[in-house]
TrEMBL record:
Domain PurM-like C-terminal per the UniProt entry, residue ranges: 172-329
Cited Pfam families: AIRS, AIRS_C
Lineage: Bacteria, Bacillati, Bacillota, Clostridia, Eubacteriales
Subcellular locations according to the entry: Cytoplasm
Catalytically driven reaction(s): 2-formamido-N(1)-(5-O-phospho-beta-D-ribosyl)acetamidine + ATP = 5-amino-1-(5-phospho-beta-D-ribosyl)imidazole + ADP + phosphate + H(+)
Protein name, per record: Phosphoribosylformylglycinamidine cyclo-ligase
Signal peptide: none
Similarity section: Belongs to the AIR synthase family.
Every PurM-like N-terminal domain range: 54-159
Molecular function terms, GO-annotated: ATP binding; phosphoribosylamine-glycine ligase activity; phosphoribosylformylglycinamidine cyclo-ligase activity
Length: 333
């Protein structure tokens, strides 16, 4: 008689995976979570203090950066990437993350690998103060290769309706502030993997894979602290598409241009190395974050105070440009 295990799905390994995961997930749970892992669904009550609460959601994955994790067998950072890609997005509208769910798919489940992936997710949840309230691990033999995993996630946050940031009050002359990235984050890796076929290539005295696997920075805590003190008119998470595609997404009005001064901040060496490998510099700004992971739009009179506040919060920040009239999207200077 053919069994599920003989067909390639090991239920017992799945049980073991869940047991390993539970100890990490438990640490992320806030007082708003009404049940633990193991139920058919996660339940979260809305925090008090919101007059007209609006739920803000976002979903994303890690992409082909995962291949670096497969090759190095280091799985505990890409889960941070997964959370970061989601929570940084919903943060752009002023939302405080409430909870997160993950989805992991593989060809053959290894409990230690899946628990490392979820450990990273839990680390990301702790950094963003989101609760990991559930998820799914799918073993699909014959569909995914053994040793390969995919991971995606889904975040939900909350913001008062009258505090939603949508760019409607952005005006000509407003200043753009950039907060540095931690490196490549999770974008452009289909190109990166072609440029660095040898992930043990030396870079700054160590194997380059260590730089490539640096997890995406999570901006939740410093940004939420700013929102309590300043009028932030717009925000952009610089992900796939770089400056060119992402910065204009903060605009609601037509005929506005984000002018970015390329030399206004120090660019990490990894981006210069990619340029040296033959990638056109202008193309870089349409693919990578170029060292700036998050952009804020503020009134000109508030710019230096906001930068000073960010530095007090332990974040470097730079005045990287301004808003002008015109429908060019982004203008690089």
């Amino acid at each position: 008689m053919l069994t599920y295990k003989e067909a390639g799905v090991n239920i017992e390994e799945g049980y073991r995976s869940v047991d390993l995961i539970k100890k990490y997930a438990k640490e992320t749970l806030s007082s708003y979570v009404l049940n633990g892992l193991g139920s058919f669904a996660g339940m979260v009550e809305l925090p008090e203090g919101y007059k007209k609460p609006v739920l803000v959601s976002g979903t994303d994955g890690v992409g082909t950066k995962l291949e670096i994790a497969f090759k190095t067998k280091k799985y505990d950072t890409v889960g941070i990437d997964c959370v970061a890609m989601c929570v940084n997005d919903i943060l752009c509208h002023g939302a405080k993350p409430l909870f997160f769910l993950d989805y992991i798919a593989c060809g053959k489940l290894e409990a230690e690998v899946s628990s490392d992936l979820v450990k990273g997710v839990c680390d990301g949840c702790m950094q963003s103060e989101a609760s990991l309230i559930g998820g799914e691990t799918a073993e699909m033999p014959g569909f995914y290769k053994e040793g390969e995993y995919d991971i995606a996630g889904f975040a939900v946050g909350i913001v008062d309706k009258d505090k939603i940031i949508n760019g409607s009050n952005i005006n000509e002359g407003d200043v753009l502030i950039g907060i540095p990235s931690s490196g490549l984050h999770s974008n452009g890796f289909s190109l990166v993997r072609k440029l660095f076929p040898d992930i043990n290539e030396k870079f700054n005295g160590e194997e380059i894979w260590k730089t490539l696997l640096t997890p995406t920075k999570i901006y939740v805590k410093p940004i939420l602290a700013l929102l309590d003190k300043f009028e932030i008119k717009g925000m952009a998470h610089v992900t796939g598409g770089g400056f060119i595609e992402n910065v204009p997404r903060m605009f609601t009005k037509e005929n506005q241009t984000a002018v970015i001064k390329k030399d206004s901040y120090p660019m990490p060496e990894i981006f210069n190395l990619i340029i040296e490998k033959g990638v056109d510099k202008d193309h870089m700004y349409n693919t990578f974050n170029m060292g700036i992971g998050y952009v804020l739009c503020v009134n000109k009179d508030d710019a230096q105070t906001v930068i000073g506040e960010l530095k007090e919060l332990g974040e470097e920040a730079y005045e990287i440009g301004y808003v002008r009239a015109g429908g060019e999207g982004v203008c690089l200077e």
